[in-house]
């Protein structure tokens, strides 16, 4: 069975900007293109609805409640086969100061036997859709097109 994840893509403004997070940890430290993600994480579809998982992951990664309501944009498959369901929320007025990033443990350096904690994200940024296409991991880029269609339909 394919791994599934769910996340929230916050947007703001007439010329939309989206909130994305730079992935934490030593592997991503010196990377920019393809090293950003929307706040998201894995869940068990049999045990938790995707929207609830997206809210939980947003809280775990950023330390705050996501804006409501959520609108489902769709589900896309990564090249690896992993599937991500993305929800949109209006982030106008969402403050990025005071975020508390969740952490994960990793053996670092590799094969050292030492476990270290790293933030799941080390920073967030509001960026335009074109910049987001360059920064996001490839499997999440289709969510930007779905967001653009959703916003255009609402005008």
From TrEMBL:
Domain of life per record: Bacteria
Alphabetical list of PROSITE patterns matching this protein: NUDIX
Pfam family, one: NUDIX
SUPFAM superfamilies: Nudix
Every Nudix hydrolase domain range: 1-149
InterPro entries: NUDIX_hydrolase-like_dom_sf, NUDIX_hydrolase_dom, Nudix_hydrolase_domain
Protein's UniProt name: DNA mismatch repair protein MutT
Organism: Microbacterium terricola
Organism lineage: Bacteria, Bacillati, Actinomycetota, Actinomycetes, Micrococcales
